[in-house]
Amino acid sequence: MPPRTDSSSSVPRHSFEMRPPLKQHHTWHGDDAERGEKSKRSNVHSVPVEITPLMAASGRSKKSYIEYDVTFLPSARSVMNRHTRSAFPEQTLLQPVTRQPTTSRLTLRSHKFPWIITVSPSPPKGAAKAAFYIGSAPTLAQQIGPISILDALQAIHLSLNTPITQKEWESLGAGSKTQKKVTKAYRARCTKMGGGWESGVRRIDWLGSKTKLVGLEVESGVADGRTCKLSFARV
């Protein structure tokens, strides 16, 4: 597994910038919800989405109203309003992440790392507890709501806090500048969190010190209209 202290000093074989995207996905949803939504998604994938103003990257800085350090689990305490410097309440985070609420999956990516993040709506709390209905029982697809801001933030946190594999570490190039940068970020993160050394390098370490999510932007030129770029800033 990736080293927990010093990186290798041999000559790098690859550079991170030239790596092809990895075909790994992390999706924040229940399996039943995904199966129930397949037919519905096939009809709406061609309709471009528009990100809610709270999350939409805007201006030259590509920043939204929301600031969120992806190191921490998203909650009403960790997701901040960039303008008021106060935390967003839970009901705000449960609002749809798109202007026109959608239950169709969104794809998130960044030039800072090679992984693709897929976001789907989470089933409502208690959806699986009901056991008796008059007439036809509603399907899970009918019970779930649109993708929320919280769904997107949870998917990002889950994906980026996943430990990397040995193959992913070696693909950076032994002793390369990028590998050393990731090692430095790993050490800084563990020091900041007061632990976590035993878990090794995680995907979040690809971001260096820029772990603050500041917005989403629908990527132009992508046919499905549902691929968004992530904007990060220094914490």
Automatic annotation (TrEMBL):
Residues 66-219 form the DUF6699 domain. Residues 1-12 have a biased composition (Polar residues). Residues 1-45 are annotated as: Disordered. It comes from the Eukaryota. Residues 28-40 have a biased composition (Basic and acidic residues). InterPro entries: DUF6699. This is DUF6699 domain-containing protein.
